[in-house]
Amino acid sequence: MHRRRAQNRAAQRAFRERKEKHARDLEVQLTAMTEKYDRLELSHTELNAAYEKLRKTIELLTQDVDAEGEDEDGRAIKRKSSSSDTLRKLLEILHGEIKGVTPVKPELA
């Protein structure tokens, strides 16, 4: 009977140790996955910002008409934007200074 109790205590101790080790392993996994998620979220935010800059750049470079005006006879005409206007807008986009494109800041978990 004494031998049986000792055996049960040893088995119970081994079970508790395995259970605690499993809990520690899960905590390590959770930490690693949380860190990976944070890195991916930051990368996603950066890629979205780059995408918006590129989208605005493409929009600017492909637009045909910038404004309307009148010719000397008073007729409505459309004028194309000048190269300097286009370059200025392009630089604003690339430096994140264009209206409508606000840098997205990642939320900290």
UniProtKB/TrEMBL annotation:
MF terms in GO: DNA-binding transcription activator activity, RNA polymerase II-specific; transcription cis-regulatory region binding
GO cellular component, one term: RNA polymerase II transcription regulator complex
Keyword Protease set for record: no
Keywords carried by this UniProt record: Nucleus
Domain BZIP as annotated: residue spans: 1-61
Highest taxon of source: Eukaryota
Statement: the UniProt record of this protein carries the keyword Nucleus: yes
Positions of region (Disordered): 1-21
Subcellular location: Nucleus
Xref: CDD domains: bZIP_YAP
Gene3D superfamilies linked: 1.20.5.170
Protein name: BZIP domain-containing protein
Organism: Didymella glomerata
